[in-house]
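Board notes (copied after class):
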Amino acid sequence: MIDSPILPGIVRKNDRKIVMVVLGGIGSAPDPVLGRTALEAARVPNLDHIARQSSGGLVIPVAPGISPGSATGNLALLGYDPLTYLFGRGALEALGAGLAVEAGDIAVRGNLAMVDGKGVVTDRRADGIPTAAAAPLVEKLKTIKVKGVEVEVAQSAGHRFVLRLRGNGLSAEVTDTDPLEVGLPVITSSATGTNGALTATLINDFTAQANALLSDEPVANAVLLRGATGKPDLKSFNESYQLSAAGISSFPLHLGIAAATGMAVYPVEDTFAAHLAAVREHWDEHDFFWIHYQEPTSTAGVGDFNEKRRALEKVDVHVRELLDLNPDVLVVAGDMANPTGHDGHSWHAVPFVIRSAGTLGDSGVERFNERDLRAGSLGQFEAKHAMMLTLAHAGKLRQFGA
């Protein structure tokens, strides 16, 4: 873990290369009708091949029974204890969308959404509006002025955008306006602490203006805000682990994680081939590559078992190219479980395999899926320990103790 008291005394540099591939939302639970997970049903021969050559198991993103957010699951895999580093997602999304977040700023995630005439939410994600179609709506939001603060709006992906407030006396101690369910009214933001009253007022002002601007739009006539946070205070990934790390993703949240942890940030298009091309392009510049690929999560969000299965099979076509890179250590993992038929993320443990010269397929598993890997040599462990295992396989940790 990045906060381990023994880490500074045992970590060391060498020239070995590490590639960590995180497949968003890859984990699942058995479909209630079919009795299998999407990974079990999918034909993924390349992932299976890697699993047979690896040590493997399942990681618990936070703790048993706790469903992780996307940022939480990924930060845990990078060694940031999710119970220590607690903050909203707004600033990470802002960084990934290209907005600077300075001390004193507040950043908030936004959804384009639909509400009825009484302000009750009928669609939290604007019917899956694509990024290109959302762009002119976000441009409208950029015209909003709120007295007493500087307002900056940036587009994220699909229905998402980011709001950054800059001024004096701001605080993240505010409630969300997003009720998180359809059929409930938009919430009026309020203070959750002694310093939050001003920020809540500003958020409500922005919301009122945004909803007025969008009132005639057929797909998204309102905004929902959540995850207010200030500048992230994360220890440097590179300094802590003595690495030169690169973060590669097409998704603003994960680009924000890379930026907040001090990695070099490489935005790419949303194909797995584009992610791998970025690794090849920057291969000589870094010794650690964190690749986050979002598609399994994106397709699973609609709760369609076959769509998730197809997404996994599509990813697998390119996975063999990871071996062509010939990294000294290759990690393939999920950041969270996103089961079909389940409302959002879940607490289920997710696949994790690590391949290096020292593994030689010691897990004894044949397939890359939840059921096989449950019997793998690594068993089940908390995701916050994944980086220490990874460093050890790369020979980047000295002996501890006499």
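Comment from the instructor: The chain has 14 helices and 13 strands. The first helix runs from residue 7 to 10.
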